Amino acid sequence: MNEAQEVRTETLMLNVGPHHPSTHGVLRVLVELEGEVVRNLTPDLGFLHRGVEKLAESKTYHQFLPITDRLDYMAASYNNFAYCLAVERLLDLEVPPRAQYIRVLIGELNRIFSHLFWLGTHAHDLGAITPIFYTLREREEIMNLFEMACGGRLTQTYFRIGGVALDLPEGFEDRVRAFLRDFPRRVDEYETLLTSNPIWMKRMVGVGVLSKEDAIALGASGPMARASGLAWDIRKTEPYSSYDHFDFDVPVFEDGDVYSRYLVRIEEMRQSARIIGQVLDRLPEGPVLAEEPRWVIPPKEKTLHQIESLIHHFLLVEEGFHPPEGEVYVAVESPRGELGFYIVSDGGPRPYRLKIRPPAFVNLESLATMSRGRLLADLIAILSSIDIVLAEIDR
Fold this sequence. Notes:
By secondary structure, this protein is mostly helical. It contains 17 helices and 8 strands. The strands form 3 sheets. The chain has a 3-stranded antiparallel beta sheet. The chain has a 3-stranded antiparallel beta sheet with strand order 6-7-8. A hairpin with a 7-residue loop joins β7 and β8 (353-357). It is globular, with a radius of gyration of 22 Å.
């Protein structure tokens, strides 16, 4: 065989990331290529690892709450949500109905917020520059609403063990209703740009298929699982915080490809808006914090005017409270899937052990399954469709 006829058979090992915009954070993917075809890949983590679960062992239960915001800065309130629910179950603490509704309201706004940013960046990854300017417009208004409610925009730390920090301010409900009146038209605009766009469909339809069986075997959840035909949403299957009071649909598609994951998130934004409207229509009166001084910090206005409340607040946060011995696991439906907190209590003021079940970490395990046999360009679309947040993966 002469030199011109020689066939090269070795594969190429290529690093994608950790400093690549389409890895959506410091993720390194070691890709084995044959030409432009992906034969295998290995995600390499740890560039952002902060030891949050170990850090929890040195913090009182109240002190650890603001740290949970930083686990997923695209859905900070959901980490507050799951953590507070876990501690409340450990304490057998009942949250007032108004606080439960407000948690749902903020949570669903955060779901829309997260999906908007995913949609804009996903389109950008595939070469569509315009959509991110549309989605950031609506996302900015949601951040304004968060700021109006609690002062925080990205990491709100609005939830508290026993309820929420503050009641909704005057004018907040009217502003949310104004957002809801305009938002369906905005989603229609996204779909006009993308849903039937032939280039968009070419990059996504039939790409990165995850079968229902593989989704179950790999523990996928959230839009990843629902796009593969698995009709599982914790808000429906194991309702928490009054979700069983609201009427909404769980979008499910059967094809399991990148396009199906896009369709799921588009419909989820519409359903979240539907839930928010029902919350506003049915929002009960009453307190927003449980009246249990052993565990719940006093309302902010009392700490500003009563020395006893200020001392009480200081002792609960700095010295902590002593929950019963035991262990709990509580999960919520975050924008990325099942987000769970497992807490072990030895009766002390700090968690004896704390373990987080982050959906992005588990969903990332399916990347190799979806990418084998696809082109390198498809890998970018597939990775983006998982909707990972590296801070949640590395914790």
